[in-house]
Amino acid sequence: MSVRDGATGRITAVSSDSTHRFSKPNRAGITLLAGLGVAGDAHAGVTVQHRSRVARDPSQPNLRQVHLLAGELLAELAAAGHPVAPGELGENVTTYGVDLLALPTGALLRLGPEAVVEVTGLRNPCLQIDAFQEGLLRRVVGRAPDGSVVRRAGIMGVVRTGGTLRPGDPVGVELPAGEHRPLEPV
């Protein structure tokens, strides 16, 4: 599947949390800070903030400043008996109408009136998902017919231009020039 340049969608929910918890509460709005992430969120920073990554090498650049998840996945999970609300899988921005997983590395997402997030890669889901809801991990990680791993728990990005986001704001896609690189886990 591919995404066309200029594709549009909308933000359906925004979430943040100042502490490291699996789920993030929904907010009326969040502010993205260039080069840092979501203002006040535990994962904001120039260098890695996810605890397992900090333990390995705290000087790594933070390629996971913003976590975006397609609302279409939440609808699919609910239909399969796994009701999950926006923010409960730890995402900051829940979208509708853009195939996030089909974006290439380096795509720019224009969020709301001014914010720009550069897509860095796929979220690599962990066992905490099954601790949240038993059996959920196999719904968001699977295998393609060729045996490769398929990760569907959202994408990660870095903030290039800050701004405030609210539910209902538009999402626009700007594809990078040249050959597109598929998303890899970050």
What does this structure look like?
It comes from Streptomyces albidoflavus. Residues 167-186 are annotated as: Disordered. Residues 177-186 have a biased composition (Basic and acidic residues). The protein is of the alpha+beta class and 186 residues long. The protein has a single domain (16-174), classed as M1 Pyruvate Kinase, Domain 3 (Beta Barrel), CATH 2.40.33.20. The chain is 13% helix and 31% strand. It is built from four helices and 13 strands. The strands form three sheets. It has a seven-stranded mixed beta barrel. Strands 4-3-12 form a three-stranded antiparallel sheet, with no helix packed on it. Strand 3 (30-33) and strand 4 form a beta hairpin. The longest helix has 9 residues, at 71-79. It is globular. The model has no long low-confidence stretch (mean pLDDT 95).
Give the key terms.
alpha+beta, M1 Pyruvate Kinase, Domain 3, 186 residues, three-stranded antiparallel β-sheet
CATH class: Mainly Beta
Principal-axes geometry comes out as: globular
Q: Enter the CATH topology name.
A: M1 Pyruvate Kinase, Domain 3
Task: Tell me about the largest β-sheet.
Answer: 7 strands, mixed, barrel
**Mean pLDDT score:** 95
Helical residue percent band: 10-25%
Count of helix runs: 4
CATH superfamily name? Answer: PK beta-barrel domain-like
Q: Numbering strands along the chain, what is their spatial order in the largest sheet?
A: 1-6-5-11-8-7-13
The percent range for strand residues is 25-35%
Structural class: alpha+beta
Number of strands: 13
Count of distinct structural domains: 1
> In the CATH hierarchy, what is the architecture at level 2?
Beta Barrel
Rg value: 15 Å
Taking pLDDT < 50 over at least 5 consecutive residues as the criterion, the unreliable ranges are: none
